[in-house]
Amino acid sequence: MNHLTPMPDTAETPAQENADWWRGAVIYQIYPRSFQDSNEDGVGDLKGITQRLSHIADLGADAIWLSPFFTSPMKDMGYDVSDYCDVDPVFGTLADFDAMVAKAHSLGLRVIIDQVLSHSSDQHPWFAESKLARDDPKSDWYVWADAKPDGTPPNNWQSVFGGSAWTWNPKRRQYYLHNFLPSQPDLNFHNMDVQDALLNAVRFWLERGVDGFRLDTVNFYVHDQKLRDNPPVEASAANDVPDINPYGYQEHIFDKTRPENIAFLKRFRALLNEYPGTTSVGEVGDGTRSLKTMAEYTAEGDRLHMCYSFDLLGPEFSVEHFRGCVEAFETAGNTFADGSSWPCWAFSNHDVPRHMSRWAEETKSPEQLAKLAGSLLMSLKGSVCIYQGEELGLTEADIAYEDLTDPYGINFWPEFKGRDGCRTPYPWSAKQPNAGFSTVKPWLPVPQEHAEAAADVQVGAQGSIADHYKAFIAFRKSHPALISGDIAFIDWSETGLAFTRTSQQETLLCVFNLGAKDQLFKLPDGMKLVVLDIENSEQAISDGATMLQGHSTLFARVE
Known about the structure:
Helix content: 10-25%
Structural class: alpha/beta
Number of strands: 20
Oligomer: single chain
Strand order of the largest sheet: 11-10-9-5-2-1-13-12
């Protein structure tokens, strides 16, 4: 074990019957294509997920989040939905989904599923009808606009995946909006029939017993009806692909994060309120405004339950950055009277390079960095998402161009290699073909270094990264302060992060040496502690100070 000794405590922690179970929950993200192949076609599926749910339950997670498994042509790996109320055959059937939900619930796991509401596939029947004619009953279910007099698109909006956000349709002789691929036309949220249809699809899954929804690109739903041009940013700074993607050269004030979006979020929350115990987590991609948007979208108890952004999903690994993001969210949330704004933090997911590779230069001990990252993530105020394989310390896979499937990477290769490197199959067994994911060639290759870090090597192995994650989740659950307590930072050093978490039951001190070198931590004046854990150091606190080794942590109860 990693000296993570849970403190005996009789206080209640989130339970299945608790409607607020999501507050402080540990959510495990599953990328269905890459979790477990059960039918020997090289692609993960719902039956495979069902077979492996015990791994997540044993880890101690509270819920799973499934990336899209709906009917789709897979131009963007399921984020282009052609039927919101069915399972794509590559993943199985509705019966397979129901069996998976039943199994998850029997293991004490809640089930959160993706909802891609901002856009559909161009193969969705709604779009097939909308593009027929300007007077079709569904003609304005998508965002259509006339060309400028010279035939160019109606404004300067850019696609996240590169190029104009507008594509010409010769039959309607109009452009349609797509914030992503041309095969992902944007739905028109100014049309209440569209909102009703989408909410009906959400209700479909609620009736099947799901416990919540992750909302893809939640701030992209509503566009400016006047179609005004976005202004340029003051300096060139692309979003997550610096300098090579023109999307980042605009201030996106008219194509997303419109104030009218709040009204739909309230409608969404009202629907969830009909199903007690359900929850929502929104994905906010909003540049420098994202933390403020997160707070706004989760405020006042009538919008989303929680949101996450890309602020902790980048290359920055510093005290200033971690503290700055948390404090910026707290400050924004405090502008709302009830203080209900709630974050959901993550270090990795299916859209960004894995943090073990992003932060690799910070340490000579990847294993120690992996443990520190897990401890830090699960000590921040908020709920957390763990991406599959994070508990194994997986790094970003190096995918050859000929093996790429991600259109984002294909468009910007080689300057940006896309998202396939974080989506490779989960390694279950070090010595089995394809690391136990599939008996046939998988849709993406399994790197050898991933096979060597497989679950059967780490799970139950004392001192492993997987062992640390399991121990820390148990530690977290035994301390109410880590689940829902307030956070207050303590000044230490440029590479030393320290804060307290305080609940009605207790106050914990959490200290992280983000640097590779040992450094002395001095307690604030008058603070007395009962040490709960000092990783990689047997040195106790004496004379109000302790020496923390590089990339080690300290947890203590404040007396």
